[in-house]
Design goal:
Elements (H helix, E strand, L loop, with lengths): L7 H7 L12 H10 L16 H13 L10 H7 L3 E2 L21 E6 L10 H16 L3 E4 L8 E6 L12 E4 L15 E6 L5 E2 L7 E2 H13 L26 H10 L11 E4 L7 E4 L5 E6 L5 E5 L11 E4 L7 E4 L5 E6 L5 E5 L11 E4 L7 E4 L5 E6 L5 E5 L11 E4 L7 E4 L5 E6 L5 E5 L11 E4 L7 E4 L5 E6 L5 E5 L11 E4 L7 E4 L5 E6 L5 E5 L11 E4 L7 E4 L5 E6 L5 E5 L47 E3 L2 E3 L43
Parallel strand pairs: 1-5, 2-3, 2-4, 4-6, 7-8
Antiparallel strand pairs: 5-6, 9-36, 10-11, 11-12, 12-13, 14-15, 15-16, 16-17, 18-19, 19-20, 20-21, 22-23, 23-24, 24-25, 26-27, 27-28, 28-29, 30-31, 31-32, 32-33, 34-35, 35-36, 37-38
Helix pairs in contact: 5-6
Length: about 700
């Protein structure tokens, strides 16, 4: 180590090696050092200038802390260790843990301010170096630091001082000093807490430089004291008491992090890691909830059939894969009947809409049945205010067609047209008063919608909400019942607009930023806050959420993984959100919130990231749920297993055409009467706010 020029060095250098019981000139300086840094109590009786028993014990403690031979003799190695440049706060004897802590801040949101800098570096580079050191501690989580003006009563005040600092002397080889949090302070019992750097006896630099000390390295150590850490006996730890010139150490060691976590325990992770549900799937995933709250997932297998697996208990583990048969050519839609029975819908090889349903709530499944029609996209399902299901699909003419149950849990009316010419899948929302509302992309790429004019009733005409969409539409319902829609814009960012009052008018378009490579999925937290999920340019899963029910939005945060599908969001019986995707192995993967978010706390990791940064990484295979590695081949005609029970399979879907009732109103039922539909949606322009 380069010899440092400070007044104490010559005195210690001149002190002879001293054995227990011996007296040498200047040995009192060694005793002063041991007292100053906590090894020799100030009230301990001692013979001045003599290596007596109390001093020998203190020397042994010092030697143990610095990993020197524990001899109790003042020797060359001990002298060299005492002459190292160091922090001005006392050391703490190691116990079971290498790190040592004092106390924690009660207020976890701290402020800091700068006063005087140093002329050793250009401009304000010294302050930038300290800001980086502060950010390193903040990244660990549990404390936040905000810079304020020096006149704004900061919690921490930072600056350079003469070595003879009135609040805590730095004369004699001390580089800097700070203080511990209120309640265990050693410098001052008031705020602000000091972080002072010696500007008389040492030279400062940004980075390693001969005979100079890196500001960020020393600041990282001193802010360790500010957060409540004492000195560590681990030689390479940031909180070790000494440091050399021409040296940098700007990363925390595990010892430093362990000490911090002892004071500020990490909050539980909001989300579990990725886990595989196995299978080989060829579609996006659809998730529904059984009457008892158990989620059930549906996907198309390599044989074209519908496969499903379900939670064996509400919010619990999952069954294996089972086939529901069929050969489908679209994604799957799922809805809940009024009595809680799940019902699924998909297009068959004849382009008709087919469905099957649970015969009892939480129970077995009926065979496949055709609802006819000639559809050119996946179905969408909504539930009327009186509990009747209603399905919507795009017909061969590009219009929206629908049919509905004539009674809750009952039979179905024929196909009827709602008109329009659409270029997207259909999204269904339900207003606060129970009225269904449809959202689609028109031929002008704008968002169009129409709605029931009364619950269970007739339909309005098509109306444009503007914008230029490059994705399908996703709907969400705010805590107060206001609908909100999400789309990808021409800039690949997430855009949204919302009803300004329940059942009411709509806001302008607003951007939520990001770069999306998928459609959007939306879920509602237990607190009522909406949360959206997308795939980023790194193919990882990203999400953002409302910071309060009905409120503003967080930044983007990554949930990792590498996705090869759109995202599906389900809700557990206890309110925890769960997301489902297809991985690079074509298996179904999922991750879930570790607890329901009933408050306004963040639902993701602290510290927002830029959506275009980093890579998701392969979804880990650790902790994999027992699974079928590949869905076994199956055909429509064979007997299939559902919910663990065998039952006869339905015959193959027969060829079908659009029902003859396609141009008529639903006789005697309110949901079939509509205004004449235009042949084509009129052009619309993006609102000026886009």
């Amino acid at each position: 180590m380069t010899e440092e020029l400070y007044p104490a060095a010559p005195y210690l250098a001149a002190v002879e090696n001293t054995a227990p019981g011996e007296r040498h000139p200047g040995f009192n300086k060694v005793q002063t050092y041991l007292e100053r840094f906590g090894y020799l109590g100030p009230s301990t009786s001692r013979a001045l200038g003599v290596l007596d028993d109390p001093t020998e014990g203190a020397l042994r403690s010092f030697q143990e802390f610095f990993h020197l031979p524990v001899t109790g003799v003042f020797d060359d190695a001990t002298r060299e260790a005492m002459m190292r440049p160091r922090c001005g706060l006392p050391d703490v004897r190691p116990g079971e843990l290498a790190f040592s802590t004092t106390c924690a801040w009660a207020d976890r949101t701290l402020t800091y301010a700068f006063d005087t800098g140093t002329a050793d570096v250009a401009g304000n580079a010294e302050f930038d170096a300290i800001r980086r050191a502060i950010q390193t501690w903040q990244t660990v989580g549990g404390l936040s630091f905000t810079e304020v003006a020096v006149g704004s009563s900061p919690d921490i005040r930072i600056g350079w001082r003469p070595a003879a600092d009135p609040d805590h002397s730095m004369v004699g080889g001390v580089l800097a000093h700070a203080d511990f949090p209120p309640g265990c302070s050693v410098v001052t019992n008031t705020l602000p807490k000091p972080v002072h750097f010696d500007d008389s006896e040492h030279v400062w630099s940004v980075g390693a430089a001969t005979n100079a000390f890196d500001i960020e390295t020393v600041a990282l150590h001193e802010f360790g004291h500010i957060v409540g850490l004492a000195h560590s006996s681990v030689a390479n730890a940031v909180m070790a008491p000494t440091v050399s010139s021409n040296f940098t150490k700007r990363a925390l060691t595990q010892d430093d992090i362990d000490g911090f976590r002892a004071l500020y325990p990490a909050a539980p992770q909001a989300w579990a890691g990725w886990n595989s549900l196995g299978g080989v799937i060829t579609s996006d995933v659809t998730v529904g909830n059984n009457k008892d709250g158990r989620m059930e997932a549906f996907a198309r297998g390599t044989d074209g059939a519908v496969w499903h697996r379900w939670q064996t208990t509400p919010s619990g583990d999952w069954s294996g894969w089972n086939s529901l048969g069929g050969i489908i050519t679209t994604e799957i839609a799922a809805g809940n009947n009024q009595d809680g029975r799940l019902e699924i819908f998909a297009r068959g090889t004849d382009n008709a809409l087919w469905h099957r349903w649970q015969t009892t709530p939480n129970g077995n499944w009926a065979g496949w049945n055709s609802l006819g029609g000639g559809i050119t996209g996946p179905a969408a399902v909504g539930r009327n205010a009186d509990g009747r299901l209603e399905v919507f699909a795009r017909g061969n003419d590009g219009a929206v067609w629908h049919r509905w149950q004539t009674a809750p849990n009952g039979n179905w009316a024929g196909w009827h047209s709602l008109g329009g010419v659409i270029t997207s899948e259909i999204a269904v929302g339900r207003n606060a008063d129970g009225r269904l509302e449809l959202f689609v992309r028109g031929t002008d790429n704008a968002l169009w919608h129409k709605w029931q004019t009364a619950p269970n009733g007739n339909w309005s005409g098509w109306n444009s909400l503007g914008g230029i969409l490059t994705s399908n539409i996703t709907t969400g319902s705010n805590a107060d019942g206001r609908l909100e829609v999400f789309v990808r814009g021409t800039d690949n960012a997430l855009w949204h607009k919302w009803q300004t009052a329940p059942n009411g008018n709509w806001s302008d378009w607003r951007s939520l930023d990001g770069l999306l490579t998928s459609d959007i999925a939306a879920g509602k937290n237990a607190s009522g806050r909406l949360e959206v999920f997308v795939r980023g340019t790194d193919n990882a899963l990203w999400h953002k959420w409302q910071t309060a029910p009905n409120g503003n939005w967080s930044d983007w945060h990554s949930l990792g993984g590498i996705l090869t599908s759109n995202i599906t969001v389900g809700s557990n019986a206890d309110g925890r959100l769960e997301v489902f995707v297809r991985g690079t192995d074509n298996a179904l993967w999922h991750r879930w919130q570790t607890r329901p978010f009933l408050t306004e706390e963040p639902t993701g990791a602290s510290g927002a990231a830029t959506m275009t940064e980093g890579t998701g990484g392969d979804m880990p295979s650790a902790g994999v749920v027992p699974q079928t590695v590949e869905m076994p081949a199956g055909t429509m005609g064979e007997s299939v297993t559902t919910n663990g029970h065998e039952h006869p399979a339905a015959p193959a879907m027969p060829a079908g055409t659009m029902d003859a009732s396609n141009n008529g109103a639903m006789s005697g039922h309110g949901t079939g009467v509509e205004e004449p539909a235009p042949d084509k949606m009129p052009a619309g322009d993006m609102h000026a706010t886009a």
